[in-house]
Amino acid sequence: MSVVTGPAERSAGPAGLDHFRTLEARQQPTWPDPAALAAATGRLAQAAPIVVPAQADTLTERLAAAGRGEAFLLQGGDCAETFAEANADRIRNKIRTILQMAVVLTHGASTPVVKMGRMAGQYAKPRSSDTETRDGVTLPAYRGDMINGFAFTEQDRTPDPERLEQAYRISSATANVVRAFTQGGFADLRQVHEWNRGFMRNPAYARYEKTADEIDRAIRFMHACGADFDALRSVEFFLSHEALVLDYERAMTRTDQRTGKAYDTSAHFLWIGERTRQLDGAHVDFMSRIANPIGVKLGPGTTPQDALALTERLNPDNLPGRLTFVTRMGAGTVRDVLPAIVEAVTWSGANVTWVTDPMHGNTITSASGYKTRRLTDVLDEVAGFFEVHKRLGTVPGGLHMELTGDDVTEVLGGSEEISDEGLALRYETLVDPRLNHQQSLELAFQVAEMLRA
Ligand code: PEP
Ligand code: MN
User: Fold this and answer.
1) 79 CB less than 6 Å from ligand 1?
2) More exposed terminus of the chain, fewer Cβ within 10 Å: N or C?
3) Does residue 328 have its Cβ closer than 6 Å to ligand 1?
4) What is the spatial distance between Cα 409 and Cα 420, in angstroms, rounded to a whole number?
5) What start and end residues bound the annotated signal peptide (predicted)?
6) 259 Cα to the center of ligand 1, angstroms
7) Average pLDDT of the chain?
8) What's the CA gap between 131 and 165, in Å, rounded?
9) Does the Cβ of 297 fall within 6 Å of ligand 1?
10) How far is ligand 1, taken at its centre, from the CA of residue 232, in Å?
């Protein structure tokens, strides 16, 4: 990579953080103006952190608990956030959906649910092609608002490093609103339960009545016992995104005064995508040097050897909670491919938190031409994930979802059936299809049933 960096960025942090620059980095934009990139990343390297290292350490502990079966992770949000939708309403709806799902899952798992948004930084996307051609015109592919614009014009599609700073500012503002909502009483357990009761009023969801009634009774029981509901008015909520654009992640990395370790302060949790997890690649090298809890997406082509090598490379000290494997195999594949991977890792003694992403292995093109998923496939992959872990005596640690709090029509199915014709109604995503608010809750009820099975 021929990337020019600012002096501030080069000098910050422990040695080796820039080693990734000598390695192949896939899925990076071609910035037209290296000097402008250096100026932008130089400024970012001086900017205030979005999250602080101590919170990242807390999350490592929570994920370690999820790895032991003492907690369950719920991670969710858009495939790609957009600058235009980073407003209070959309953020609130997303948080509300995650909190509602978390109440249902807490009941199903009988353990605390660790809540995490794909939020406040999910602005960069890997693409299958560098370019897109329409009507004979070829332009760079849309790579996320952090890099270029979605509109099919030369100006929008040209990568602009100023967008890195815009992503930082909008992510900071988002993180601020997330904190306000999750600390300020919005997350009150009784209120969240009331929202779930609203969902249950729709007769389409009658099949979940038993679980809903049980939650109702549990909350009344807690109340009768004098539980301190005031203490339940705020919740821990963590932020995460795919660490794709290394110029951004490197610029946001700071040395923690307490420990002397480097933390990527752009999010609590960062993950390496399926397309950038090469052992000798730049992403794995960079992520091996930061102290945040991290994840790696593992697709159906993953071999047990690949997984083992990643545990050695990314968690040589075998710290519980440091490394999460987010498996995204596909409903038809998970039962065949996952067992050998889990067995190999378990026999090696490596500590890994296992999470299912039932979205990315189940993407199809509908007859009407939309990129979509079937809710039944999504649920089937979750079921397969639980079956495999149950059979092996290992721990299913959580769920990684693409969802929104809004009433979109992007995924097929659900009790309020979205059909192929229905997709056109409110298909709003710029990249992958998301479960809408109702489908997300329905999924939570079904997963809660699986957790108890
Ligand atoms: C994603 O999470 O949006 C994504 C691109 O996933 P994956 O790396 O698993 O394909
Ligand atoms: Mn996606």
Assistant:
1) yes
2) C
3) yes
4) 10
5) none
6) 32
7) 95
8) 24
9) yes
10) 33
C-alpha separations of 241 from 102, 249, 304, 348, 410 in Å: 19, 11, 25, 28, 21
ipTM for the whole complex: 0.99
Separation of alpha carbons 396 and 135, rounded Å: 47
Length of the chain: 453
Among 10, 134, 90, CA closest to 437:
90
pLDDT tens sequence across 136-170: 999 999 999 999 999 999 999 999 999 999 999 99
Domains by residue range for the chain, with CATH: 2-187+234-452 (3.20.20.70)
Distance, in Å, from the CA atom of 122 to the CA atom of 402, rounded to the nearest integer, reads 11
How far is it, in rounded angstroms, from Cα 396 to Cα 378? 16
Give the number of other Cβ atoms within 10 Å of residue 24's Cβ. Answer: 13
Backbone phi, then psi, for 412, in 5-degree steps? -75, 140
Ligand lying nearest the CA atom of residue 357 = 1
This prediction's pTM:
0.96
Q: Whose CA is nearest to atom 1 of ligand 1?
A: 79
DSSP 8: H
Binding site for Mn(2+): which residues? 79, 360, 402, 432
What protein residues have CB closer than 5 angstroms to ion ligand 2?
79, 432
State the distance from the centre of ligand 2 to the C-alpha of 403, rounded, in angstroms. 10
Work out the angle at residue 400's Cα, subtended by the Cα atoms of residues 189 and 98, and round it to the nearest 5 degrees. 20
User: Is-contact 17 249, C-beta < 8 A?
Assistant: no
